[in-house]
Amino acid sequence: MENFPCTAAFREIIEANLDNFTKSHLDPGNLRRAAVALTIVDYRGEGGLYGLGAAAPSSAALILTRRADSLKNHAGQWAFPGGSIDPGESPEQTAFRELEEEVGLSLQENRFLGCLDDFITRSGFHITPVVIWGGTAQQLYKNEQEVASIHRIPCKELFRPEAPILEGGEESGKPVLFMPVGDTFIATPTAAMLYQFREVALARRATRVAHYEQPFFAWS
Known about the structure:
Layout: H1 8-19, E1 32-42, E2 60-67, E3 78-79, E4 82-84, H2 91-103, E5 112-115, E6 119-120, E7 125-135, E8 147-154, E9 165-168, E10 175-181, E11 184-187, H3 190-202
Parallel strand pairs: 1-7
Antiparallel strand pairs: 1-2, 1-4, 2-3, 2-8, 5-7, 6-7, 9-10, 10-11
């Protein structure tokens, strides 16, 4: 399995792959608009998936969080830092703001690399996934009100042989997509975004994911 080094050369590859991708825009209608930050950082830092920290070889990873149990919506679920788009904000601005608010990572907007396809959730959100270069980002600080824990998921983890996992959606008949990470599974919509990031940003394949269903527990 390829190791993706967190280097300037890797950043250029990601940016080029996203530049060559034609993003699919979905009409938000009356849905609540939101954005999430898919932030690429060095795996060697607090929150590494296998706890290897600085002893691990240099490797690119994505920041994921577990949402606080006290939250009204989607408590305890895996998520990217993100939230509702404020009036006058672009999705990119929202992603950078939420990244700082949730995990304490403040970055300049020249770290923006591109966007993946919009995704409409069962809970009524129109989400734009924004890809950001975070670099070394040695230490992150969780917002206790929103985040239970912060994790760095190595990019190579997205290429596990069993990924993605598709199951039949009993409620709608559409396939539900999951991504295995460590010893657990992440569900759509986060899983669908992880999978499309793998396909578009890392493998340069124009794979679409908007048709994948969410598990019933994520519908509200």
